[in-house]
Structures are given as C-alpha cells and as structure tokens.
Design goal:
Elements (H helix, E strand, L loop, with lengths): L4 H11 L3 E4 H9 L3 H8 L1 H15 L5 E4 L8 H10 L3 E4 L2 H4 L3 H4 L11 H10 L1 H4 L4 E4 L5 H19 L5
Helix pairs in contact: 1-10, 2-4, 3-4, 4-5
The protein binds adenosine-5'-diphosphate, shikimate-3-phosphate and magnesium ion (MG).
EC number: 2.7.1.71
Catalytic activity: shikimate + ATP = 3-phosphoshikimate + ADP + H(+)
Cofactor: Mg(2+)
C-alpha cells in the first residue's frame, strides 16, 4: 500500500504503449464511490469479496498493465490468478522510507485509519510473506517512480529479447 503501484504502473503502461488498469479505480467506478466510502458504507469484508472477483477477472486481460490493491495479494485466489496470468512485480520498500509517506496516505487508505504507528508497522511486516511470492522483486528505496518504471520496462524488454533473440 502506498509503495507506488498506481503511479509506476501508469508510467510502465505509457512506456510500453499498453492500456493501464488500476483495480481500485475500476472498483470505484463500479460503485460510483471512493474506496474509503465503500469501506465506510459496506465494510471491509464486502470490499475484499468484490476486490477478489474484480482482480481475478482483470488479471486475465491480455497485454495490459494492472495495478492491484496492496491488500489484494494476501488473498490466495488473487495470488493464483495473478501468478497464472500475469508477470507479477513486487515493489519492495523499507519501513523507514515508507513510514515517511504515511501522511500522504492516511486519508485515502481506510486500512491505516484507527491504527497507531506500531500497529501499522506490524501490518507492514505481516504482509511481507505473501508479497514474497512473485515473479520479480525490485527495491524502490531512494528511487523515483520514473526510475522504477524504466527499470521494469528494461527488464521486460531484456526478457523478451532473450525469449525471441532474432526479433530485435
Ligand atoms: N518512487 C516514489 N518515490 C516517492 N514517492 C512516490 C513514489 N512512487 C509513488 N510515490 C507517491 O506515493 C504515494 C502513493 O503512490 P501510489 O502510486 O498511489 O501507490 P499505491 O498504488 O502502491 O498505493 C503518492 O503520493 C505518490 O505520488
Ligand atoms: O493495502 C490495502 O489493504 C489497501 C490498499 C489500497 O490500494 P493501494 O495499495 O493502491 O494503496 C486499497 O486497495 C485499499 O485502501 C486497501
Ligand atoms: Mg494504488
């Protein structure tokens, strides 16, 4: 959450001339409400159930760049759909760097609200074992969104060249 998936995903899509899909934005469109409003009116279990259906469906879209919600990958069905159909990048950030962003995130991330800093830190570390299951992990510490997007694009292009060495 708040690592930069939406910002970086959009940049990657532009650089690869692909359509970008942000699952949270799609959910917001479906309900005509913001994520905090959905949490507020329907509760987290309802959001998680809808997020599962929506993410599993969108993960099957071809030739797209998809940004999922930070809590989504904790769900085994979502993990399976993403790992089966997509190339999954894990954007890793150190707690020390991420906690400096908290004031930017608090209003729009209901999961952070009503938690003190030690509970937020606990949540941060608790999620790491699920995030460890991925196709490619990259550290975003001290890197701009643009730098991370370039790195992802370069690594994909390199992999495609290795896969089809004559098609350069
Ligand atoms: N590499 C970065 N360095 C510093 N701030 C960033 C970086 N990437 C994103 N941000 C900022 O962090 C906040 C969360 O970014 P966002 O893309 O919404 O993350 P996510 O989709 O993972 O929740 C935004 O205010 C964004 O401008
Ligand atoms: O980590 C989470 O549980 C959440 C992360 C958010 O998305 P971002 O990861 O894009 O912030 C959004 O799906 C919702 O507020 C719940
Ligand atoms: Mg996002």
């Amino acid at each position: 959450m708040g690592v930069g998936k939406t910002t970086i995903g959009e940049l990657v899509a532009k650089k690869l001339y692909r359509t970008f899909i942000d699952v949270d934005k799609e959910i917001e469109k479906d309900f005509g409400m913001t994520i905090p409003e959905i949490f507020d009116q329907h509760g987290e279990p309802f959001f998680r159930d809808y997020e599962k259906k929506k993410t599993c469906l969108l993960a099957q879209e071809k030739l797209k760049v998809l940004s999922i919600g930070g809590g989504a990958f904790l769900n085994p069905d979502i993990r399976k759909a993403c790992l089966d159909h997509c190339i999954v990048f894990y954007l890793d950030v150190a707690w020390e760097e991420w906690k400096e962003r908290l004031n930017l995130l608090i209003d729009s991330r209901p999961i952070l609200q009503s938690k003190d800093i030690s509970e937020i830190e606990e949540l941060f570390y608790k999620r790491q074992s699920a995030y460890a299951i991925n196709h490619s992990k990259l550290s975003i510490n001290h890197r701009s969104a643009e730098e991370v997007a370039d790195f992802i694009v370069d690594s994909l292009k390199y992999a495609w060249e290795l896969y089809e060495p004559n098609n350069v």
